[in-house]
Amino acid sequence: MAHDHPHHHDHDHSSHGPGHNHTHPDHLHSHMHPEDQAADIQVLATQFIDGFLQAKDKSSYLKLAGVPFERPSRTGAKALKLIDVELKTEWQVGTASPSFGSRELSYLPFPGEMVTERTNMSLVYVSMDEKSTLDLRDFLYQRKKDLDK
Predict the structure, then answer these.
(1) Residue 111: pLDDT above 60?
(2) Domain boundaries, the chain
(3) Is 65 helix (H, G, I), strand (E, B) or coil?
(4) φ and ψ of 33, to 5 deg
(5) Nearest to 116 by CA among 134, 95, 136
(6) For residue 35, which of 11, 1, 67, 6 has the smallest C-alpha distance?
(7) Is-above-0.90 flag for pTM?
């Protein structure tokens, strides 16, 4: 959901018109609440994973999506190489939360129709000295942030 409020950005605020939209026509934007942004990223991740699963040429799909096949290492000494794409599927069959005034959890198992499936993807990079896993949602968030600049 769009909103107007004062906050930090990596660009000049002197060209802003009313609210938060810029006065020059080539740069109009609003901002989403964090929970809406997370939901947006989750939708993108779901579509990305569906496309990846259906792609006949997985490497080309990743290249077209802008997934880097090399990333800097923590030390910057040697580049990490993309070697694996991991998919992990989970089913949420219930929920648990702290009980009021107790150390016990309040547990609610879901009836069958409420059980939900979640699939996530991770990109695995390695070098001789290091292994790094990049969550797809983190990649998409950064990509979206870079495109919104």
Answers:
(1) yes
(2) 32-148
(3) coil
(4) -65, 150
(5) 95
(6) 1
(7) no
